[in-house]
Design brief:
Radius of gyration: 17 Å
Structural class: mainly alpha
Strand order of the largest sheet: 1-2
Distance between the termini: 27 Å
Oligomer: single chain
Strand content: 5-15%
Low-confidence stretches: none
Largest sheet: 2 strands, antiparallel
Shape: globular
Number of domains: 2
Number of helices: 9
């Protein structure tokens, strides 16, 4: 999981380049800052970074900086709404594929993939965050529902799987897939 400082660097750079990203043909945008290990910019990634920051930053200066960046994000999202929705729609398709591939790999080789769940579930978290950004097609909703059925059939409810300080940003009613673990033959 990225540190709060890395999330902040990503969020700040992402908001700074958001208009260029939205108007580009790229789905995964390479940020121009030369910070090591920043992920490529996507709407889902930006929303995930923001959610983690909202849970973690408590200092008044940092909170004010974050609030200002969120205001910039909201302004850009409103001004470039059509581009935002198109890009979010493309990302949903890509994230559905990544999530489907992970669940398929886990079913085929759980000994290799089940332990990767806390990292790979970020695809499902991004899909949840993207769900309020535009109107999904019935086909996309059906695919996500079917993937949730697969996950639930191999799910053991339990504790929050990411760092405890993030749990406030991801309530169990909406992010149930962060509260438990995948069943394996040795933990069933």
């Amino acid at each position: 999981m990225p540190t709060p400082e890395k999330d902040y660097a990503f969020f700040q750079a992402g908001v700074g380049e958001l208009v260029d990203y939205l108007l580009s043909g790229e789905l995964f945008w390479q940020l121009s800052v030369h910070e090591a290990d920043l992920p490529r910019l996507t709407i889902g990634g930006l929303l995930l970074g923001r959610a983690r920051l909202q849970a973690r930053f408590a200092s008044p200066v940092t909170r004010a900086d974050l609030t200002a960046l969120e205001g910039q994000l909201d302004t850009i999202r409103s001004k470039w709404r059509s581009a935002w929705e198109r890009k979010a729609g493309r990302e949903v398709h890509a994230r559905l594929n990544l999530w489907h591939n992970y669940l398929t790999d886990d079913r085929q080789s759980p000994e290799k993939h089940t332990g990767m769940y806390p990292q790979e579930v970020r695809w499902r978290v991004m899909l949840q965050l993207l769900s309020s950004e535009f109107l999904w097609s019935p086909g996309e909703q059906e695919i996500l529902s079917s993937l949730d059925v697969v996950l639930k059939s191999h799910w053991l409810p339990g504790e929050f799987i990411w760092e405890a300080d993030l749990s406030t940003a991801f309530p169990q009613r909406d992010y149930w897939f962060l509260f438990g673990k995948l069943k394996r033959s040795d933990n069933v």
